[in-house]
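Translate sequence into structure tokens.
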Amino acid sequence: MAKKQKEKEFRRVRTIPPMAAVVPFIMVNRTGSQNFIRDSFDVEKLEQYIKEKKAEGMTDISMMHVMIAAYVRLVSQRPALNRFIRGQRVWTRKHVEVSLSIKKEMTLESPDTCVKALLAPGATMKEVYDAVNQEIVNYRNDPGGDFDNVAAFINHFPALFFKFFVWTMKTLDYFGLMPKLIARVSPFHCSYFITSMGSLGIPPIYHHLYDFGTCPVFFAFGAKRRVYEPEADGAIKKKGYLDFTFVLDERICDGYYYASALRQLKLIVRNPWQLDTPPETVVEDIP
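Result follows.
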């Protein structure tokens, strides 16, 4: 029964080109397979959209919610982004699992933790907002949570035993035998990790991927910046931009696919109102 559930959640991609099947054996870890890209969005439509959503009752909506919803919509059209490498083979997920780091309070002393939200590729903005907020509210109302509890328990072990435990988990994960409890609470087992530098008032960092887990993408965005730009008629207009970075595992798909995905993401954020309704179709990954 457990095996059937596992196959239902993710499956091996068996029809990839021969070169793509060979690469994970040559580039054996994520940190050695990272590609980096930096770009920006015009925030005019995004800010208007967020203002409208707040007026409609989504009082806590932020740029983080919109970026998560935009990426989930992107995965619905570019499903190869939802792949991961395990056991030197390419796998694909059924759902989108997003991990994010949060603080209970924006202070130096406040501890941070990671939470995960499980989303369907066809999720709307409201569904993303509700799912992400529930995870954040649960933690801030009752700090600790599954990830913190497991981490605190393991941290009581002697260092040598701790190191052996992590090695054991990595080995089990390689063969797809990771205990469900660990995989469920681990923020490193996800479709992508997202972080906002906006609340810190700094540009986005290039955050490395992790060699533990299955996360193939790290998405970071920074504080909004304002610039003055000339219009076609010669007038000077003040415009806002949101800088962002992606760190990508190049083994899950090729550069052409990533470039196509980035263009698609920009189309989504230029018209964020499309996130209010499910996509017309959800594209399935190849067999």
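Note: Residues 86 and 176 are 7 Å apart (CA to CA).
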